[in-house]
Amino acid sequence: MSTDEPYAPEPAGPGPADPALAHRMPALGSLQLLLAVARLGSLGRAAEELGISQPAASGRVRAMERELGLALVDRSPRGSRLTPAGALVTDWAGRVVEASAAFDAGVQALRDRRDARLRVAASLTIAEYLLPGWLIALRPLRPATAVSLRAGNSEAVAALLLDGEADLGFVEGPAVPAGLDAVTVARDRLVVVTAPGHPWTRRTAPLDAAELSGRPLILREEGSGTRQVLAEAVGGLAAPLLELSSTTALKAAVASGAGPAVLSELVVSDELAAGRLVKIPVAGVRLTRELRAVWPAGHPPVGPARDLLGLTRGGRG
């Protein structure tokens, strides 16, 4: 004898019980329950198979009958059987459940393909001095993810993100590029540096904004976050003494005596410690900046990009 609890389907007339519910689709779990009842001939065994209580299963069946305006299951001491309408609904339910499984499999395949790679774009200071540590920390979390890194100035990073060619970016400029959302991951300080024999090393007073804006400097190229921050801080820049797109080349030019430059403290820390470059004091100029992670507006990072973003929140600055 079945151990199913007494159950009586709610009466249903020829039309839906509530016109407002006539076009509602039962929840996927309810359809799976109906299929299990049809296969097992018992609401109790169906509930056990799906890992729910028998009262909960009875409630789901009643809810389906109310939604559809149809009696679906007849109960008796010998077990549960489908009504003619229930049998037809069960046939349709099988197609829905199969389609749902195919949908889930397809979505998972897309996630797997997305998670197999991570495309990062970063401005040079972040790419050279912060990202390596972050990517090393990411490796244990995403060992199967292949990471590619494209380094360029802040404008180039924004373009790669907006063109869909990068999953996550990092920029150094004074403002968030248009079309992107951002979060600050670190803070950085710019410093004025010269070769040890430069006349500025013998100054007794710090530099001010007027001297920095009026003196030709060795600068990064247009679009560089470092150059943008400096120009905003001093109110404009004179024509550059030299314009270089590589921080390594820029440091070498300064060390050779070609002229002064303004660079990230992260970039020149080793040269300052070794005495190859000298930091020149500056007063009345705000040379700190925010280093930001960026992504297309309204599309927050997911998968490996989200994991990397989480690791950066403890960055230096």
TrEMBL record:
Residues 26-83 form the HTH lysR-type domain. The keyword Transcription regulation applies. Keywords: DNA-binding, Transcription, Transcription regulation. Gene3D superfamilies: Periplasmic binding protein-like II, Winged helix-like DNA-binding domain superfamily/Winged helix DNA-binding domain. The keyword Transcription applies. InterPro entries: LysR_HTH_N (IPR000847), LysR_subst-bd (IPR005119), WH-like_DNA-bd_sf (IPR036388), WH_DNA-bd_sf (IPR036390). Residues 1-21 are annotated as: Disordered. Residues 8-17 have a biased composition (Pro residues). GO terms for molecular function: DNA-binding transcription factor activity; transcription cis-regulatory region binding. CDD domains: PBP2_CysL_like. Belongs to the LysR transcriptional regulatory family. PANTHER family: HTH-TYPE TRANSCRIPTIONAL REGULATOR (PTHR30126), HTH-TYPE TRANSCRIPTIONAL REGULATOR CYSL (PTHR30126:SF39). This is LysR family transcriptional regulator.
